[in-house]
Amino acid sequence: xxxLQERAKALDSADELAPLRDLFVLDDTxxxxxxxxxxxxxxxxxxxxxxxxxEWGELRIRSWDESGWWTAPERIGxxxxxxxxxxxxxxxxxxxxxxNVFKAVVAASRLAPEGRDEILVDAHTFPTDGYIAGSAARMxxxxxxxxxxxDVLDALGPRTAAVLLNHVDFRTGRLHDLPxxxxxxxxxxxxxxxxxxxxxxxxxxxxxxxxxxxxxxCTYKYLNGGPGSPAYLYxxxxxxxxxxxxxxxxxxxxxxxxxxxxxAPAEGAVRGRVGTPDILxxxxxxxxxxVWDGVGVQAVRAKSLALTDFFLECVEAYAPEGRVxxxxxxxxxxxxxxxxxxxxxxxxxxxxxxxxGVVGDLRRPDVLRFGFTPLYVGFxxxxxxxxxxxxxxxxxxx
Length: 398
Ligand SMILES: *Cc1c(COP(=O)(O)O)cnc(C)c1O
Hints:
Elements: H1 3-14, E1 30-31, H2 44-58, H3 63-66, H4 72-80, E2 91-93, H5 97-111, E3 118-122, H6 127-140, E4 143-147, H7 152-155, E5 160-166, H8 178-187, E6 191-195, E7 214-217, E8 232-235, H9 237-240, H10 279-288, H11 297-318, E9 324-326, E10 338-343, H12 346-355, E11 358-359, E12 361-363, E13 367-371, H13 379-394
Parallel strand pairs: 1-11, 3-4, 3-5, 5-6, 6-7
Antiparallel strand pairs: 2-8, 7-8, 9-10, 10-13, 12-13
Helix pairs in contact: 1-13, 2-10, 4-10, 5-6, 11-13
Pyridoxal-5'-phosphate binds at residues 96-98, 126, 128-129, 166, 170, 195, 197-198, 218, 231.
């Protein structure tokens, strides 16, 4: 065994989160794509089977009430709340992240003081956020100002209505300064909207503590909710009474079953709902959140940093000089839970990695992405991934 293999073994045996791995369906591949689709918790299929057979099959319509289907969006929102540092009653689950970005950006522009006409959007954002913010801006008479997160401070001004930022950059894994940027946005009199897709479930977010106004995030990445599981919307309590959704559906009505022609919004997080929730996906997500019982986000963060540090160290030790360069910041305060390596022939290298049982992904043209999900990825996985990567980079075929 090499030194790094010995170290991996020692780190795994000292890891208090290591037993959580057994809660997931995994095989002998190294799964470093949990930042794209989280693994399946073992107990979820049986729970879904029960939902299908008992709740849908036998109870049918009664389940909206008797099985708690109707209130699932708020109930599950309250399960996600502690993971992102929010008190109960501020998060509602439903729709996709894309749709929630739309709700949040339009609502933010409506919350902002009159006469402000600019919406700042992370210039390197995940595409859907940019497309949707662009459309929202056209509809509300605002102008989009694309801005790198490092330049937000300079771009803020008396014309800024709202700012949409990603907590962690999906491509590079860079963690942005949510507390500092939120404070700066507020100092400029604007509204801060954060996209938590690549941070929730991997590191502390502190939505309430840092005074975030609105936030969205998906649940199929580090929250392991399953493919296409519904996203969530956070509306800080202080904004709820004036939160004006651009998609006021019947399920966010104060009295949905009155079926009245006039819209009167419900109180609280429910105001972010739109239409009938996708119950099967939603209940799969609810069950999958059980793996968080008794797990602290601080411990997850500590392991995530240790894992990415160790992976970077192994890559440095094993990989031929100059073949890959890390795009992920070395500073802990600027790092999410993934490592992005720039590599000239990234596409061929990732195919070779997957063929050899190391599953990461590719962001074209030249980025190898490795997501580290602390709940089920261990140090031996990190060492093996780096070793296989180095073998591929050294070999003739890459
Ligand atoms: C994954 C991700 C999305 C996904 O949006 P969907 O509507 O679920 O397809 C959006 N924004 C960011 C930043 C993401 O990382």
